[in-house]
Design goal:
- The structure holds 2 protein chains of 2 kinds.
- By secondary structure, chain A is α/β, with parallel strands linked by helices.
- Chain A is about 25% helix and about 25% strand.
- Chain A has helices at about 35-55, 65-75, 95-105, 130-135, 190-200, 245-260; strands spanning about 1-5, 10, 35, 55-60, 80-85, 115, 140-150, 155-160, 165-175, 175-180, 205, 225-230, 240.
- The longest helix of chain A is centred in the N-terminal third of the chain and has 17 residues, at about 35-55.
- In chain B, the strands form 4 sheets. Chain B has a 7-stranded parallel β-sheet with strand order 7-11-6-1-4-5-12, sandwiched between helices.
- Chain B starts with 7 loop residues before the first strand and ends with a helix.
- Chain B is α/β, with parallel strands linked by helices.
- In chain B, strand 17, helix 8 and strand 18 (about 315) form a beta-alpha-beta unit.
- Chain B is about 25% helix and about 25% strand.
- The chains are: A alpha/beta, B alpha/beta.
- At the A-B interface, helix 3, helix 4, strand 7, strand 8 and strand 9 of A face helix 4, strand 7, strand 9, strand 10 and strand 13 of B.
């Protein structure tokens, strides 16, 4: 089974986030980047399915030069090779523009399955994988908590998360796009051997023209959405922050819960 | 000369004869949007309802202040599938060319709305929490970076935009009623070719024994910051001292530190206790939508920038493994 796994490199949201000088995005200087959390689970699911069926995983990622680091990590845990949509024209896209670019890269080869994470931890549109499916004319399932291939190899039983602690089980024909939810499996770590092997694996770069796309169809130019500013969230009245050492903080809290909030 | 009235649609979600609560919130958002774009209070959105045998539901929806209720009633729409929903809505949206189509930002709509946008050739604006009219058009707000930041977003270019509204961002009870029922009419689309693109095999409850956290007066909720299943003791002692139930955010469940029926948030339970004490929870939006209705919220987190503090009444910045034992001791002392 030939499987494409789309991964995105995103800012580490545990790091201190500062707004950029122009106020439109984050200041990326000294900002650590990681592979998007649900994409790591998608990669693990892809590697496990490839091992089971004797296939291979090809990574596809869109982003600037730094994305090579994420691709190397993916190659180190077992992907066979990678495609990097690296041209500046690809950057700043919404879910439709990015999905269009990724689909064009995937269409150049023959895949049985495309896996993506369910949502990016930065802009969080949660739609890119579904757009890829639409572009390819394949079925898709979003928020996947389980994948079992049918014996025929032509379809899969997929568990989809619903609200309120319910799951729905569906069957889709392959090829399909499955958008994986974090927590579905236990992503593996890279071995030293894997890290060494990754250095020799191919990372092919692609520009819009290589994919049969005009620069205006992708990235910021091909998008309907434009982020005009980012800021700390509205905080309503805001929390009363309690100061002092833990004993002082605890004593103040108990007193306020009794006399102000009257919940104790 | 009146200017061209903007057309706003709202697509509702129903399941097994029930209109989902988030649908009423979506109507409230669509009414506000239509009023903002159109001629003040005179502008009304049009609602769309999909399913099979949903005449009663359409009548219930029609009581709201809407210009029309369009109903796509066909057997292939009885059980939700993205293929059937996209096939039914695509020709109707292309034909009517609404400026905006509003959806509740639910797990169902996230499954099919991006695909619908792709099929229609419309813009896609997911998970908005609000909008305001600026000098050169609408500015939308939506959370980014797990709720740690908020983005202001503009839509450029011409053509329909599909917008989904975050749970709780608009109040369901502000959806206004009409003075007379809105006309109910079939959706102007040929439904003969509508068919599912997946076979729905069934639904299952996740986890075994079900603990109902919605009945608890006090909940102590624990997040990734606790650090491991073996470090849960301090949380258990605090819960015992308070007579509280223990809840958790998703990472705790995914790591197997607590069973899935303790999960609070969009994929777990939605709670609104008298007192909600969040320890080591950063406050991703998926968690906040499940607890922000609590009467009093206390947050303990080592990161002063954690979004949980934006919904909290009282905040303590610190290591939960120091603060929680101190709090347990203070509560025991206060209770004598």
């Amino acid at each position: 089974m030939r499987i494409a796994v789309c991964i995105k490199q995103v800012p580490d949201t545990e790091a201190r986030l500062r707004v950029s000088r122009d106020g439109r995005w984050l200041d990326e200087e000294d900002l650590p980047f990681v592979i998007n959390e649900s994409d790591e689970y998608a990669l693990e699911e892809g590697l496990a399915l490839a091992e089971k069926t004797g296939g291979e995983v090809v990574l596809v990622s869109l982003g600037p030069e730094r994305v090579r680091e994420a691709l190397r990590k993916g190659l180190a845990v077992g992907a066979a090779r990678a495609v990097h949509l690296k041209d500046p024209a690809f950057l700043g896209g919404d879910a439709l523009a990015t999905g269009r670019a990724l689909a064009a890269a995937i269409r150049r080869e023959s895949f049985d399955l495309v896996l993506t994470g369910s949502q990016s931890d930065d802009v969080g549109y949660a739609g890119t994988g579904s757009v890829v499916a639409g572009e390819l004319g394949w079925p898709h399932v979003w928020l996947v908590m389980g994948v079992a291939l049918d014996e025929s190899g032509k379809s899969a039983r997929v568990t989809r998360e619903m609200e309120s602690g319910m799951n729905e089980i569906v069957r889709v024909q392959l090829p399909a796009v499955l958008e994986i939810q974090a927590g579905i499996n236990h992503p593996r770590y890279a071995s030293l051997k894997g890290i060494m092997a990754a250095k020799k694996k191919e990372i092919a770069e692609a520009a819009p023209a290589d994919l049969g796309l005009e620069p205006g169809q992708v990235g910021a130019a091909g998008s309907r959405l434009e982020i005009v500013s980012v800021a700390l969230p509205d905080s309503g009245a805001g929390a009363q922050m309690l100061e002092g050492d833990p004993q002082k903080q605890a004593a103040t809290l108990v007193q306020k819960l009794r006399t102000e909030a009257r919940v104790l | 000369m009146s200017e061209k009235m903007a057309k706003v649609w709202v697509v509702l979600q129903q399941r097994e004869g029930q209109i989902a609560r988030m649908s009423w919130e979506a109507i409230a958002a669509a009414q506000k949007l239509a009023g903002e774009l159109g001629d003040g209070a005179g502008a009304k959105p049009e609602a769309v309802l999909l399913g099979a045998g949903i005449g009663d539901l359409a009548a219930e929806v029609a009581k709201r202040d809407l210009a029309a209720v369009h109903v796509a009633d066909a057997e292939p729409l009885r059980t939700y599938t993205p293929g059937a929903y996209v096939a039914a809505l695509t020709p109707a949206i292309r034909e009517a060319k609404p400026d905006f189509v509003v959806f509740p930002h639910s797990y169902q709509s996230v499954d099919y709305v991006p695909r619908l946008a792709q099929a229609v050739g419309a813009g896609l604006l997911p998970e908005v929490t609000g909008f305001s009219a600026g000098a050169d058009g609408l500015v939308w707000k939506r959370p980014i970076l797990g709720g740690k930041m908020q983005a202001q977003v503009k839509v450029k270019g011409a053509g329909t935009v599909l917008v989904s509204v975050q749970s709780g961002a608009f109040q369901a009870d502000t959806a206004t009623l009409g003075s007379s029922p809105a006309p109910v009419q079939p959706l102007a689309a040929d439904l003969s070719g509508v068919k599912p693109d997946r076979e729905v095999l069934g639904v299952e409850q996740v986890g075994g024994e079900k603990i109902d956290l919605t009945k608890a007066d006090i909940i102590v909720a624990v997040g990734r910051g606790v650090g491991g299943a073996d470090k849960m003791g301090v949380i258990e002692e605090l819960a015992k001292a308070l007579g509280a139930e223990i809840g958790a955010s998703r990472p705790v469940i995914d790591n197997g530190w607590l069973p899935r029926d303790r999960q609070i948030g969009s994929s777990g339970q939605t709670v609104a206790p008298k007192l909600y004490l969040a320890a080591g929870i950063s406050g991703a939006i998926q968690h906040l939508v499940g607890m922000k209705g609590s009467t009093t919220i206390v947050a303990i987190n080592k990161d002063p920038g954690a979004p949980i503090f934006t919904v909290a009444d009282y905040g303590i910045v610190g290591d939960l493994h120091e603060v929680v034992p101190a709090l347990t001791a203070a509560i025991k002392e206060a209770k004598g």
